[in-house]
Amino acid sequence: MTLNRRNLIKLGAAAGTAACGVLPSGTRAAASPSPSSAPAPFSVPLSVPPLLRPVRRTPTADHYEVTVQEATAEILPGVDTPVLTYGGSFPGPTIRALRGRETAIRYTNALSLPIATHLHGGHVPADQDGYPMDTIEPGASREYRYVNSQPAATLWYHDHAHMSEAESVYRGLAGAYLVHDPLESLLGLPHGPQDVTLMLRDVRLDTEGRLGFSLIDEVADRNVVLVNGRPQPYFRVSGRRYRLRLMNCSNGRHFALRLSTGDPLVQIASDGGLLAAPVPAGTVLLSPGERAEVVVDFAAFAPGTAVVLENVDEEADAATRSVMRFDVGARTADFSRVPSKLSVLPPLRTPTVNRKVVMDFDLESGGVTMDGRTFDPDRIDQRIRFGDTETWHIENRDTATPFRHNMHLHGVHFRVLERNGKPVHGHETGWKDTVAVPKGGDVRLQVTFDNHTGRYLYHCHLLEHSAMGMMAQMEINR
Question: Are the CB atoms for 429 and 380 separated by under 8 Å?
Fold first, then answer.
């Protein structure tokens, strides 16, 4: 066997091949890449996921009901592709929460496999976090309750059942969860139809329009880029400002997003909410799981202009470089603005604990590891005192494959201090829950554990890696 990246990761995937059993009825998993078919770029319109409506409201909470089920989606025009869904929608319906008001969601599992729904970026008690072993079995239901005590932010929810999360999310179990704060409206940012969520990801489609999946897929294998479930769509915009919520919901693809015109994307928010001030950027970098909000003023372009959102990441090719196209219409009245001050980020505290976490690839077993070990739900890897402020030094020693990894911490947000010894920029200066860790490089971040006690995960959010064991757990106690 040639010692290349695919063959190395086959070793680690061998233990996880049982995870490839979550396919919708009547489909089959592809053991290796197959030809894909996709329409010409910008030939289908952007769709907006439906807004989930509460089944009832009380004075303190909004209550929702969602059936997790098989369905079909028209990814290719005229072709019904089997997918896994929250409530029949691909991607899942958008949930709008209000800061300080509780959200209660009852999930009923109509699939043939266990599920566990994780609110990515949510400050929730440990028993509401969607722990990988705390699953909803087929035919069963459970309710998650979210207090929404955190600042307004773009979050997302997705399956996290261990060993099957990668394929379940890939097949559709993901949706946007937007926390709103009425005070944010005072800033005058674009809102309503000009506040648009864009869930970015990639897939591999065979010639019959079915989703192909394998734990050993590489980025190049998944060569169809989707935005809100549509392949490289077009979106008609008016000549005015738009707030774009950019969400990297792919399993493994990185995005380096820019406008084809060279005009800046004005970054206003990160994973955890608004930045201190807007940051113009030529390119916005997002590793899997990360989010960034930007404002684009389409009044700067003449009506009829086509503006392409491009991915100029090192792994993008001709088929995946174009993400979507904005077709600019007539200028319209616009009373929105981007103020020079967006929020107040608290000063960094003095850390009392320093930790080092090493992400690596074990050549002997072929497994992806955290501090030399793969995930064990019976093992606590880090014991943390509630209220402590810590510095985490995360090092990517994976030079055998090599991969760009990233790190996602459950239950908390953190501030990134530096990458490879240099300060970070753009959306990485704000509150984060996921951070890219470069090949052979390192990241330092600071986190205060003052939200909840209990057991939480930290892991690589390249989901094939977490499914194969690049995941660990911390226990926070008073």
Answer: no
Query: What is the per-residue pLDDT across 3-43, written as a single tens digit (0 to 9) for each?
Result: 455 555 555 555 444 434 455 544 434 433 444 567 899 99
CA distance 197 to 47: 10
* Confidence (pLDDT) at 191: 97
Query: Regarding beta strands 234-239 and 322-331, do their DSSP bridges make them parallel or antiparallel, or are they unpaired?
Result: parallel
* Buried-exposed string 291-316: b where 16+ CB fall within 10 A, e elsewhere: bbbbbbbbbebeeeeebbbbbebeeb
d(CA 136, CA 140): 6
User: Which helix or strand (DSSP H or E) is residue 7 part of?
Assistant: helix 5-14
Q: Are strands 174-180 and 92-98 parallel, antiparallel or unpaired?
A: parallel
Tens-place pLDDT, residues 378-387: 999 999 999 9
**The predicted structure's pLDDT at residue 363:** 75
3-state secondary structure of 243: strand
DSSP string, 164-229: THHHHHHTT-EEEEEEE-GGGGGG----GGGEEEEEEEEE-B-TTSPBP--TT--GGG--EEEETT
pLDDT digits over 188-240, tens only? 999 999 999 999 999 999 888 899 999 989 999 999 999 999 999 999 999 99
Distance CA 418, CA 438 (A): 12
Residue that is written with structure tokens 């995360």 in the block: 394
pLDDT more than 70, % of the chain: 92
**Closest by alpha carbon to 97, among 50, 48, 155?**
155
